[in-house]
Amino acid sequence: MRIGLLTEGGYPYVGGDAGLWCHRLVRGLGQHQFDIYALSRSERQESEGRLELPPQVGRVRTAPLWSAEDDGVTLGRRARRRFRECYEELAAVLCTGDGQVAEVSEGARGEQEAPSAHVADRFANALYGLAELARDEGGLVGALRSESAVRTLERACRAPGALRSAREARVPELLAVAAHVERALRPLSLDWYEDDALGSVDLCHATAGGTAALPGLLARHFAGVPLLVTEYGVQLRTHYLASADASPAVRALLAAFHVRLATEIYRQAELITPGNSHTRRWQERCGADRTKLRTVHPGMEATRFAEVGEAPDGADPDTLVWVGRIEPAKDLISLLHAFAEIRKEEPKARLRIVGAPSGAEGHAYLGHCRALAAQLFPDEAEGVHAVGDNPVSFEEIGGPEAPTLAEAYAAGTVIVLSSVVEGFPVGLVEAMFCGRATVSTDVGAVVEVIGGTGLVVPPRNPRALAEACVSLLRNPERRERLGAAARARALELFTVEQNIAAFHGIYLEIVSHSPVCRVVLDEAGEPLPFAAPAEGHVPGRWTGPVGRRVVARGGPAWATGTPVRATPPLPATEATR
Q1: Residue 225: is it exposed, middle or buried by C-beta count within 10 angstroms (0-12/13-18/19+)?
Q2: Which one in 84, 209, 353, 432 has a CA-CA gap of 20 to 30 Å to 1?
Q3: Residues 295-325: tens digit of each pLDDT
């Protein structure tokens, strides 16, 4: 079958959060053809290039989210009225209290609720109305950036019955909300929905929710293409955290927009595949039908950790290891204070922190952690003539102490995760592949991943973290049992093979229950009954009969021109380079 893979800020670029698992999925499903539709987040990401793509990738089309070019179309009076009506409806449903969200914290695990069916329908009508305007007339980017859009949003905020926080929005806050909405809706103006693009695929697979899933939502609306949505991180929660420092008005309006967008995506998707139960709970609170939800854990390469996992006895019995990106969310401060308590009970204990800082904030946080370690743990020497050494070391993968990731995990008998915020704990799974006992904080999907094969303590509790680590350092038999059980669990649930097999079955299930949404026309433009045979889903020259034309059912032709800059389709030979 032909899959339209929708990505945002990931695959097929070299750097990206979702790039790795998408690459493994495409490589593992060689029996299907993939067309990749990628939204890039930055110019730097595009300049770093793409991964080497396998031959089953038929085309790659990209478009930027970091910039949008106005197509220069000036809307006429009738088109301006269409835009005003749609945007007024969109703004009105953002300002209503129905389905509004409460303040969200990690401990609350998502205190949002889905909007009512009436509000969801109004939002959908406004969204598809804007998409149809962009398809028929163009000029949507300019209209969303116009003063008229800001004034429309202001009227909605001042209308009777609007949220109290929305009524208090000032002009700078309205401008910020309008700019955010314009950026999120840029996929509406793309030229990806023609009969020979997303309108002709058998299935759209969105690798994230939110903006990444918008092209699939429109392909379903215009051409009836079924939509599969995979979320390994909660996009909605990410938006909440990103707007935590914004004013109450901006926070409320943006939260309302993303809740309503998530609700519509979940309503229209054939199936939704969360990566863990933590993500699943968020989806259910946003209105996702439980019958549509299938948990599919991320697939990870286990082979590079096999040597360490099969020989778990080579580690220093007194060494604790932490591996990850160095940033405030990892709470290394609590880990260092916990290690101070550990040293009181186990004077020979050592702590190796292996990882690189994430951005400018990460560099500043690393400096703070180094200073705290020097303050808590003065350099120690074995004798009067020896050089002092600090029991806490900060290292990076590739250095002499930890040349590879597997060797970093192999250095200690206990792996520690101290985060206060975590989605799917990749580092924890890697430690499990290595057969290591683990001590983790109860955040994100940690409990689901561990499943009783490691110790779990509350976040921001150095004493509990220290007690758990000491108990494992003093009991080598228990460490061995937990490590063996953790490795067996990881090999059963979190490998690339199980991930690929799950999605292969889901693809077949969705297509088998979805009607054929394409009509084959002969040379005269007349439809040909029974001209789309079952073998048409198999890549090959027989899928494109000479003298016949395949069109998507249900959508009028697109306006000429490209509203938003997008790269043209690449030939198959060029796309695979």
Answers
A1: buried
A2: 209
A3: 999 888 899 999 998 876 778 899 999 999 9
